[in-house]
Structure formats: structure tokens, C-alpha cells
Amino acid sequence: MTNKIIAFIKHYNVVPQTFQENLILKFSLILLVLDGSTGWGLDVFMRIICVIMLAFNNYIANKLLWLLISFFLIFFNSLQFYSLDNHKILFTYWILLITVYLWTGKNIGYIKNNARLMIGLVMFFAVLQKFLNGFHTPGFLHGRFLIDGRFMLVTNFITQTPYEELFENQKDVSLLNYLPIDNSYINLTNSLYLSRILYCFQIFGLIFEAIVAALFLFIKKENTIKDIALITFCIGTYFIFPVLGFSSILLLLGIGQTNVKYSIYYIIAFILLQFIMVPWQESIFYFKNSL
User: Fold this and answer.
1) What are phi and psi of 103, to 5 degrees?
2) Which pLDDT tens digit goes with each residue over 88-108?
């Protein structure tokens, strides 16, 4: 019985035609293991199937297994669609794209063109959403950098505000949740210099993100400028705003649309971005106080 099942699965094995195709499939499977699940049921399935496909190279492009992965992604993600992270929805589209690519026998240009369009559309709608939400107005990020623990390291570096005062900001804001009086307010440790720096960052970020969107939407051919722009955006943005899942799928799409020569730079960027998981703020705070 087991041999029949294995033989049935092997019947759908496809040999990747190029090194880049093999790289795209492997990198996609790695991200499925690292960040592809939305619950323990999907997580167990992904870890077993993807690890088997990675361990045995003959199954990397198995059409049946990719179809199963697509089915389970759609099923589990649809159960919690409205609470799903945006990058997981984007990742599901990407896996469906790979599945269609394998089952229809299209050439690698199908992957490249769709990866390029996905990057361009994602960046365009990100700019549109930020503009509609007021990201271009002064002060949008200022308050967040004063009270959000994720940005304490950057705030301390720019303003030299002691960590103790930034921690007090957090405590004061949390007290507002317990005050029974409406329209209560608190005075935070503030910095006009920080406000100006962040406003410049907001405007520059919007312009740069719009440029990246335009490059990928309107330049159809492979272009080094597109690769430099996307890698710069990912490293420059996600080291400050640590969103590892979204940066990973953007880099994967970058690999999908570029050539083998520049794929290595996307992989290096992916490796570098893993260090955003290091608790730098806690480590520096602990080191300073232990001296």
C-alpha cells in the first residue's frame, strides 16, 4: 500500500529546468516552514511536507504536493481571513502562482513577470494606504517612537533620551487605560528634533516606496536598479520597523523576478534581516546597566 502511494506521488515529479527555478522552489518551501502557517494544524502539515520535499530533491517540484500545499493554505487561511496578516495573504497568492506554473508547464518568464507585478502592486497599494491614513502628515510617527518599545533604540540614538524616561512614557500611556475620566491626557518626554527627523523619514519613505512601485510596474525587463531599490527598501525599512514576515516575502518575490546573478544579494539581505529578531534594545540596556 505504501509503495503504491509513493509511486503515485512520484508520478507527479517534475524536474526543475533551471537553477533559478530550483532556487525559487526551495526558498518558497523554506519560508513555508518558517512562516507559512496560521495555526498548529497547518503548521504540522507544512513542516512534514516541506521538509520531505527539501530533503529529497526529486520532490522539490512535485505537482501533487504543491497542489496539496495550496489547498491547505487556502482552507486554513480562509477560516481566519479577516484576521490574517497581509503578508500571509500575499504568500498564499505566491504559492498558488507556483502551483499554476507547475501544472500548466509554463516557462520561467511566467514566474518572473508575475513576481514583478506582485511587487509593484504591493508597493503601490502600500503607498496608497499610507497616504489615505495620513502617513504624510507631521507627527504620524512621532508619538509611536516615544511610547513603543520596539523603537526605543532608535529614539535613544537620535535624541539621547535616557531609556528610563522612555520607559516612563510607556508606563504613563498605560495608565490612561485605567483612568475613568474622559479626555485625560499626559505629558510625554518629547523632542522637537525627533519630530522633524521622523517627518523627513515619512516623506522620504513614501517617495522611495512610490519609486519602487513605479520601477516594478513599468519596467518589464530585468534591471539592476529595480533590484538595488527593493533590497535597499527592505533593509532600510525593516531594520527600523521589524516585520520579518513581510520583508521575507518581498525578498522571495525579488528572487522570483531577477536573474541568478542578483539572487545572491536577495539571499544575503534575507540573512541580514534575521538579526532583527535579536533583542538589541534589551541587550544594550542590560549591558549599560551591568557596567
Assistant:
1) -75, -25
2) 888 999 999 999 999 998 889
CB 223 within 8 A of CB 215: yes
Grid cell in block for residue 12: 507527479
Mean per-residue pLDDT for 260-285? 83
Q: What ranges in the chain are assigned the alpha helix state H?
A: 2-10, 19-35, 40-55, 63-79, 86-104, 108-132, 142-147, 152-159, 163-176, 192-218, 224-238, 244-257, 260-273, 280-290
Cell of 287: 549591558
pLDDT at 180 over 60: no
Query: Rounded to an integer, what distance in angstroms lies between the CA atom of residue 46 and that of residue 290?
Result: 43
Identify the pLDDT of residue 11: 81
Place of cell 520596539: 150
3-state secondary structure of 126: helix
CA distance 83 to 187: 34
197-224 confidence digits (pLDDT tens): 778 888 888 999 999 999 999 988 888 9
3-class DSSP state of 135: coil
Query: Is residue 200 a contact partner of residue 186, using CB atoms and an 8 Å limit?
Result: no
**Strand, helix or coil at 30?**
helix
Please report which confidence band the pLDDT of residue 166 belongs to, taking 50, 70 and 90 as the band edges.
low
Alpha helices in 161-243 (DSSP H): 163-176, 192-218, 224-238
Cell numbers representing residue 117 in the block = 507585478
Of residues 201, 102, 187, 221, the one with CA closest to residue 158: 201
**CB-hemisphere CA count at 13 Å for 108?**
16
Predicted confidence at residue 36, as pLDDT, reads 65
